[in-house]
Each structure stands twice: as C-alpha cells, then as structure tokens.
Amino acid sequence: MADARPLTRESVETWNRAAWVAMERMTQHDRASGFHCHPRRWTLSAAAVLSLMLPLGAVAQAASTQPGTNNHTASGVTTVDTAEQIFSSVPQAAGSTQVTQQDFKGSLVEGKATDGVLELTLDDAIQRGFRTNLGLILQGAQTQTVSGQKLQALQALLPTVTGSASYTVEQVNLAAYGLSFPGLNPIIGPFQVFDFRAYLSQSLVNVSSIQKYIAAKHNFQGAKLTAEDARNMVVLTVGNAYLLCLADRARITAAIASRATAQVSLDQATAAHEAGTSPKLDVLRARVDYQNADQQVIQTQNNLEKDKLNLARAIGLPLDQKFNIADSAPFTAATPTTPEQAFADAQKNRKDLAASAERIKGAQAQRSAAKAEYYPTVDFNGDYGDLGTTPAHSHGTYTATGQVSVPILQIARTQGDIQVADANLKAAQARYSDQVQQVNADVRDALLDIEAAEKLVEATKSNMDLANEALNEAQQRFRAGVSDNLAVSDAQSQTEQANNQYISALYQHNIAKLSLARAVGYAGTNYKQALQLGGK
Question: Residue 476's Cα: distance from chain center in Å?
C-alpha cells in the first residue's frame, strides 16, 4: 500500500468521517433510484474498504469532498449496484398495471402470531415469500387479466347464440295508414303473438380477428413467463433481507466479544491505577472504550430487530411473531464458470427474455391484424323460432343471411393502425435487443463481484487475524507495564473494524452469488445451491 501509516485515533476519526461521506452519497443515490435502505448498513463496508484500499491522503480528500456526487468506493460499488440489481424492474404485460419494486417488499399476512419462537431458515422464508409476497400476487393478477383479454379476442372467432321470448298484444287502426276497405272494420284486433326465438351470428372469414387472437395468445404466454420470472425477484428480495439479518447477528456477536475485551482492559487499567503503576488517564480511556463497545452492542441489536421486521414484511409473517434466524453464512466459494457459459445459460433460462420474445411475436401478429383490415370479411347471421297467436297455435320460422363486407373508404384509420402496430413492434424488438445485452452485462457484473468479494473475504480474514494478534500483544505489554493502554485502545478499534470488514465481505460475497443466480435465471428454483448456507 502506498502511504501506509500506523492506525491512530486521529486516522480512525478521519476514516470514520470519510465513511459517513460515502454513506451519504450511497443514501442519496439509493433514494434517487427508488431503493430505500438504512444508511447505517453501508457505513461499515464503506469504512472497511476505505481503510483497506485507500491511502490516508486519499481518505482525507474523500472526507473533504462535498456530498451529492456519485463517487463510490470499491465496497460501495458492490453494495449499491447489488441492491439495484436485486430490485431491477420486472417486464410488464401489455395493458397491465406496473408492479413496482416496492411491491416485492410487501406481502399478505399469513396466519397469526404464536407464543413460541419460530426458527426461520432461508428456505422457509423463501417458501413463505412464494405464497404471500405482494409483488408475486400482483403479477399473478396481471396474468389473469391478460388471460381474460385472450378470451375476449377468441370470442370474435366463435359463434354467438342468444335467445329471446316475447309476448305481444296489439290492435291496429288501418285507417291511420290510409287503408280503407268497404264493409271492413278498419280496427283489427286486439290480437296476440307469441315468439320464441334463437339468434346465431358467426364470423366465417375475418383475418384481422384471427391475428388479434394470435397476438393475445403471445401476450398471455409472455405474461405467464413474466410471472415465473417474478419468483426470482422474490428470492432476491427475501434472500437479501435474510442475509442482512445474518450480517446483523454476526455483528452482534462481534460487538459482544469486543465489549468483553473492553471490560478486561478496563479491569486491568483499574487494577493498575489502584496499584499506583498507571495514571487515571488509562482508566478513563478504558472506560470510554467499554462504553463505546456497549453502545455498539445496543445499536447492532436494534439493527437486527429492524431488519427482521423488513424480512417479516416480505414473507407475510405477522410483525409481532418472534423468530430466530436459523441458518448461518459460512464462506463457500462459488462454482467456477466463464462469462460466455453463464451468458449462454442465461439465454436459455431467463424467463424475462422469453417473455420479451413472446411480446415481439404478439406485436408482429398485431401488425398483421392491422394490415388485414383491408381484407373483406364473411359473416353469417340467422335465427330460428316458434311464432303464433298462442303456444298451441304456432309454427316454426327462420331467417338465414350470409354477408360479405368489403372496406372501401377507411384508408386513414387502417394506415393509422398499421403505423401504431409498426411502432410497437420496433419498440418491442429494440427492448429485447437491449435486454439481451443487459443480461450479458448482469452476468459479467455478478462474476466480477464474486471474484472481488472472494479476494476481499481473504484480505479481511487475514486483516482480522492480524488485528486480534495485535490486540493480544498490546494487552500483554500493558499488563507487563511496558506501555500505557493507548496501544490497547487503538488495537481494540482496529479489531472491531476488522471484524466488521470481514462480516461485510461475507455479506457481499453471498449477495454476489445470489445476483449471479438471478442473472443466469435459476434463482427462483435453485437458490439453495447458489448460496449454500449452513445450519446452526
């Protein structure tokens, strides 16, 4: 590292200021993109990479930079970009109300809270999400809407039969119509007529209606594929919320251990001061360190409870239901693959790509339907019924009509429909082409994130071991009376920071694996293999 310096209290404060600046930038970026997150969640990972990868001078410069610019640190890029990938927009079916990113964070509550404590595994959480997640339910409702539109288009090709029954009493004045017959009373009636009749209409030849039905079929298939792809969004949303809870739990464990270490240092400083071998300043410094560690425990516990609420919201769990996170997140290397192979798999597996291809076919059929408005149509209309003065004195009657309709003067309307259909087809083709490239980019981004996260896990693990060794050495020197406890205080800060760096690196690595599963298209069905979480 180019400008490596010993970690002092001043440098820690400088790093903390830089971390808060980075956090504010990430928060502003998240709010601008519509993704809401807690600013505190990114502070540790930002501080971690700042301390690992930036020289002290660069950190000081970052701390003095005005917020508002989109300048991510190495860790910040991984975290923020991952969040945007997790809540990327889902392609919507034509004519449907858009399902927003926020919808996948909500759910319909399933059941009531129990008195016991639920042991919640990741698999349990995701299965609950499949049943109750609001985004998936809304996507299913949209599929049903498009299915109804397909049936509406089909009806134009099917025979329509209606029935009626009427009873009429009538009296007619022939004189009112200018009819007069000698010796005949112009008033006829009253008389009654019963009519029971069925009417049939059938389109025999209508190319435009046929093409509209084909377009509706492709749109329905696209909606079904989009609903299947929404399962990937549920896995990403629930998986991210679950991994955040795992990271919070690990931070609580690390914070409690740090508080215990601070208590040992405080006891040593107090004993040394009472023995007259160290000044009161050492006791005050150790007490400040202990209180800071105690505050960190309180804060991390609060963070965990809030993240558990977010997880419960995404899976339909009653908010007053107590539960524990049952899985653990050990480091497990991702299955090696190449960008080319992963992209090839994504082209076969991604349901959203298949849905976009179906929408192109639907747009092509819609354009054919618009052109077919120039063609003649052939229709049949008929009726059959029983007509008479009484039901007992009636006779069957019928009418049958064949009709050929030829459009003669509707050029403007037909040309307008063709232009609209052409524009929709070009837009669908352009979206599909861009979506293919975006999938390629997502795959490569996820692979790069996994590679970087694996290196970061290795680096932070080594840094954590060194920090623990340095803390042990500083405590021994203080017990031996060789130095004051300033070195112990600095070593405790280094150890706490190293633990947080390692936890953040593990979180980023698991998120990167989950993002790769989404990019390739198997997150909704094979998330267990992607994450490879362990039990208790």
Answer: 51
Strand-pairing partners, residue 187, are 173
Q: How far is CA 277 from CA 178, 266, 268, 481, 490, in A?
A: 135, 14, 11, 8, 21
Rounded Cα–Cα distance for residues 365 and 227 (Å): 22
Give dist(CA 50, CA 62) in Å, integer. Answer: 10
Interval 163-204: pLDDT, tens: 999 999 999 988 898 888 888 888 888 889 999 999 999 999
Kindly report, residue by residue over 429-460, the tens digit of the pLDDT: 999 999 999 999 999 999 999 999 999 999 99
Tell me which residue of 262, 268, 289, 279 sits closest to 480, measured CA to CA: 268
* pLDDT at residue number 158: 94
10 Å CB burial of residue 272 (0-12, 13-18, 19+) is buried
The helix/strand count (H/E) of the chain reads as 13, 6
Q: How many CB atoms lie within 10 A of CB 22?
A: 27
Cβ pair 175, 191 in contact under 8 A? no
Which spans in 87-206 are helix H?
122-132, 134-155
Rg value, the chain, Cα: 36
C-alpha distances (whole Å) from 339 to each of 296, 347, 421 are 41, 12, 36
pLDDT value of position 1: 39
For 133-159, give the DSSP string: BHHHHHHHHHHHHHHHHHHHHHHTTS-
Is the backbone of residue 521 left (phi > 0), alpha (psi -120 to 50) or beta?
Answer: left
Closest residue by Cα to residue 63 from 28, 27, 11? 11
pLDDT score at 86: 41
Residue written as tokens 């349901």? 351
Structure token digits, residue 418:
């063709």
- DSSP secondary structure letter of residue 98: P
Angle at CA of residue 417, ends 411 and 422, nearest 5° = 120
CB atoms within 10 A of CB 274: 10
- Name the percent of the chain in helix, strand, coil, to the closest 5: 65, 15, 20
Q: What is the pLDDT of residues 400-430, one digit of tens each?
A: 999 999 999 888 999 999 999 999 999 999 9
First vs last C-alpha separation in the chain? 38
